[in-house]
Structure formats: structure tokens, C-alpha cells
Q: What sequence folds into this?
């Protein structure tokens, strides 16, 4: 199967899982807010973020295992594949035990320092433990399959298993919340789909990879990039999770809930963007491993053009419609104020800065350049922590978002120069002009929206307006690319034409 076809299959399945996750991601928080309130919602978000940090005990292992598997899978070297997977399994098991120990420790300590208006200390303790179980299942039952399928560019299998798990989890949450079941029992019941997802992956790998043998002599040297990746992944987790942790420390759980609802919208958009990059890391990893520089340069330019165009359209719509959507979404929620236009603007700006470096960040992962980017990632983490601790006590959510924006802006500038110099050997100005074109498109759409009356009263009206604005944004972005990046756009359309032609020919 060609790289392009694998990309399409992975993208289609990723599109489905992201659409499902997007829908569920909007439905379940609203139900939790209505049934249990902002305090409980903020508590769950806070605990989940702390537990996510504990998952870092395996940080770097997944990335190192995937990177190590690229070549033996491409060469069909089954013995080497088994040796790497055996080593990965041993590390995952050890990491799992450490994760469980940390979760138990948090279950005891967290209720002492974080007070909830809705739950007592013992209840919070049980909630921490239950939310941690899902993470433990990842280590012991699923991680080794995820690494294999990712490296073999079969992310569509992971997507199918995720869809089943997400849908079943949503059904459980909606039904139990409707009957006002205790939040602890609800979260416990929601663990069932996680077990089912692991079972699906186990059965698939057992059927399709009959040669897999986890008893092969472990090749721990193949995972020697683990500790470099470990460091980079820790810093990435700090970047993504620091806002919730800092807000938990300096503000209160209701403000954490406000942050989570805004972040849910940005997360949904990022999920849509994830559709277009799913599976590409493995494809680029194969190209880099084979040292096909010309292919790398061509595909990198095509991907930047495509991704920045899509990014511009999605964030142009978000910039104009985020507050009207939140007004509808939080109607009837009165225990705290969710109508904060300046916070909405900062969230969109931060999301844009985070995503504009995606093409370059993906290449860092594909090339396994973890050690080479350690210094830059450290600076990025330091920026958000230092400014977060300085600004958040005074400015609340705005302070932590400004810190995140500064952190992401630094990384955008750094990767703009790092990737061409160390990997693609392409001129820096090309990527810079594409990024400038992205911001120009956003400004044009935003200025145009000032002449529109935007006041949707329900989801139907909001959807209609967002679709019209999306069509207008597509026109603006295409005109911008035609004016400044016509050659890359032509290559993208040629690739799509060949792909569609091949699919149609195969069906005939």
C-alpha cells in the first residue's frame, strides 16, 4: 500500500473519530455542568490533568518505540520487530506499576490541598483513584499495540477502537447523569469502554500479526532515544497542562471549569486539524529513515501549504464565532460567569500559535530529533511556568493564557529556523511567507465580520452562520495561496487528482 493511500485511510478514520470525539466532547461537559455544577466539572478536569502528568513515567517510550520500529517494519525484519516490542512491553509494565503508585499517593494527598464545595475528602480520594485506573489500563493492556500500529501506519485500527470506546463512554455518562447518579459511580462505570478498546486491539494484533512474539530477547538499545524523548515529552506536558495546574493552585475549581469549557472548543478545533496530520508522522518518518531528501522537501512544502490553509479557515471561523457559541452553550449555567470575550480572543490566539508550528514539530518527532531540541523545549516550558506564576495570581485565566501565548510564540520562531537548517534544507523565507499569508487571511476575514450582524439564538442559526463564514474564509485563503504559493498548491492538487483517479480506477 502506498504512503498516500495509507495517509488517506488513516485520515478518513481519524476524521470519523475526531467528529465523534468533537460531538461527544461538546455534549458530555454540558451535561456534567447542568447536573453536577462547575465545581465538580472543574474538579474532574483538575484531577485528570494531574493524573496526565503521572503518565509521563512512560514519556519517550512510545515515541522511541515507534521510531525504532520504522526501519524493521519497512524491511520486514520480524525478529527485530519482536525484539523491540519485547523491550517496549517490559518498560511499559514497569512504568505501569510506577503510575499506579503515584496515583495512590495523589489519592491521599490531593484532598488535603484542594477543597471542593461539592465533595468531601474521602469522595475526592476515591475519584482520584477511579480516574487513575483508566491510565493504568493504558500501560498494562494497550500501549504495546498502539506503538506497533502507529509505526506500521495503521492508525485506522486505533481510530475504530477509539470510536467504540468514546461512544460507549458518552452513553454511560449521559444515562447515569440523567438519573443523577453519584459522580464517583458514574466515572467508575465509564471505565468499561476502556477495557473493550484494549480487547479490540488485542484481537486485531493477534489476527494480523501472527509473528509477534513478546518473549523475544529484548533489544533495549533500539530504544536508546527514549530518554531524549522522555525529556521532550515532559516539557510538552508542562506546556499543555500547566494552565490547569496553575489555576488550581492560585484560583479555584470554578475558574478551572471556565478554562476547561473554552479549552474544550479549542480542543475540538485542534481535533479537526488532527484529521489532516494523522498518520503523517509515520509517513515522514519512513521518508527520513530512507534519506529521501528531495521527497522530504517536496512533501514538506505541500503539507505546509495545505495545513496552513486549513488552519487559516478553521481559526478564522473560530475567531468570529467562539463567543456566540459559548453564549448558547452556557445558557442556564449561572454558578459562574462564562461570557468573557477577551478570554475567548486569547484562547483563539494561543490555539493559533500552538498549531502554526505543527508541521515543524511533526518533523522533529518523525526524525527522532529529541535530543537536538531539548534546549529549546526547556526554554519554552520555563516561559510558561515563570510568566504563569507571575501573571496568574493577578490576572487569572488571562495571565495563564498570555504566558502560554508567549511560550508558543517562542517555539514558532525557533522551529522556523531549526527545521530548514537541520532537516529539510529548504529556505526559511518560504515557511515564513506561508505563515504571514495565514495571519493576513485571518485579518481579512475578521475585518469583514465587523460588517455582519452576528447574534445566533440557537445551534441551528450558529451552524448556518459558521458554514457561510467558512465558505467565505475558504475563498479568501485560496486567493491568498494562489497569489503567493501557487506552485505548492498546484502540487497538492496534482497529488489529490492522482489519488482520486487511482481510487476510482480501482472501483471500476
A:
Amino acid at each position: 500500500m502506498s504512503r498516500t493511500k495509507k495517509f488517506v485511510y488513516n485520515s478518513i478514520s481519524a476524521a470519523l473519530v475526531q467528529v465523534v470525539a468533537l460531538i461527544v466532547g461538546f455534549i458530555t461537559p454540558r451535561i456534567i455542568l447542568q447536573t453536577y455544577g462547575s465545581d465538580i466539572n472543574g474538579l474532574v478536569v483538575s484531577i485528570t490533568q494531574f493524573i496526565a502528568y503521572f503518565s509521563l513515567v512512560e514519556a519517550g517510550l512510545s515515541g522511541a518505540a515507534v521510531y525504532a520500529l520504522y526501519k524493521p517494519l519497512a524491511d520486514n525484519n520480524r525478529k527485530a520487530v519482536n525484539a523491540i516490542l519485547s523491550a517496549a512491553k517490559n518498560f511499559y509494565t514497569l512504568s505501569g506499576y510506577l503510575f499506579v503508585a503515584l496515583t495512590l499517593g495523589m489519592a491521599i494527598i490531593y484532598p488535603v490541598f484542594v477543597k471542593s464545595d461539592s465533595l468531601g475528602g474521602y469522595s475526592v480520594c476515591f475519584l482520584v483513584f477511579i480516574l487513575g485506573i483508566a491510565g493504568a489500563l493504558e500501560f498494562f493492556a494497550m500501549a504495546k499495540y498502539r506503538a506497533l500500529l502507529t509505526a506500521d501506519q495503521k492508525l485506522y485500527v486505533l481510530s475504530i477502537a477509539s470510536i467504540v470506546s468514546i461512544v460507549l463512554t458518552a452513553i454511560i455518562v449521559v444515562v447515569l447523569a440523567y438519573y443523577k447518579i453519584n459522580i464517583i459511580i458514574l466515572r467508575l462505570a465509564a471505565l468499561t469502554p476502556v477495557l473493550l478498546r484494549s480487547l479490540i486491539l488485542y484481537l486485531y494484533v493477534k489476527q494480523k500479526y501472527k509473528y509477534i512474539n513478546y518473549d523475544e530477547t529484548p533489544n533495549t538499545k533500539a530504544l536508546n532515544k527514549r530518554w531524549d524523548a522522555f525529556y521532550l515529552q515532559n516539557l510538552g506536558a508542562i506546556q499543555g497542562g500547566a494552565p490547569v495546574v496553575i489555576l488550581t493552585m492560585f484560583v479555584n475549581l470554578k475558574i478551572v471549569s471556565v478554562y476547561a469549557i473554552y479549552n474544550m472548543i479549542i480542543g475540538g478545533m485542534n481535533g479537526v486539524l488532527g484529521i489532516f496530520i494523522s498518520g503523517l508522522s509515520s509517513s515522514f518518518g519512513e521518508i527520513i529513515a530512507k534519506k529521501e531528501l528531495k521527497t522530504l522537501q517536496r512533501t514538506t512544502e505541500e503539507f505546509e501549504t495545505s495545513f496552513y490553509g486549513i488552519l487559516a479557515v478553521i481559526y478564522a471561523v473560530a475567531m468570529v464565532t467562539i463567543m456566540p457559541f459559548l453564549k448558547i452553550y452556557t445558557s442556564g449555567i449561572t454558578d459562574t460567569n462564562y461570557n468573557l470575550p477577551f478570554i475567548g480572543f486569547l484562547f483563539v490566539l494561543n490555539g493559533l500559535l500552538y498549531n502554526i508550528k505543527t508541521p515543524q514539530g511533526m518533523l522533529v518527532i518523525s526524525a527522532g530529533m529529541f535530543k537536538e531540541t531539548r534546549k529549546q523545549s526547556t526554554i519554552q516550558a520555563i516561559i510558561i511556568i515563570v510568566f504563569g506564576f507571575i501573571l496568574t495570581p493577578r490576572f487569572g485565566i488571562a495571565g495563564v493564557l498570555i504566558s502560554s501565548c508567549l511560550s508558543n510564540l517562542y517555539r514558532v520562531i525557533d522551529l522556523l529556523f531549526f527545521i530548514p537548517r537541520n532537516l529539510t534544507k529548504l529556505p526559511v523565507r518560504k515557511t515564513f511567507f506561508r505563515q504571514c499569508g495565514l495571519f493576513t487571511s485571518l485579518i481579512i476575514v475578521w475585518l469583514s465580520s465587523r460588517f455582519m450582524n452576528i447574534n445566533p439564538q440557537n445551534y441551528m442559526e450558529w451552524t448556518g452562520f459558521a458554514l457561510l463564514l467558512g465558505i467565505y474564509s475558504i475563498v479568501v485563503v485560496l486567493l491568498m495561496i494562489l497569489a503567493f504559493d501557487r506552485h505548492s498548491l498546484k502540487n497538492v492538487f496534482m497529488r489529490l487528482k492522482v489519488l482520486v483517479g487511482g481510487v476510482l480506477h480501482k472501483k471500476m
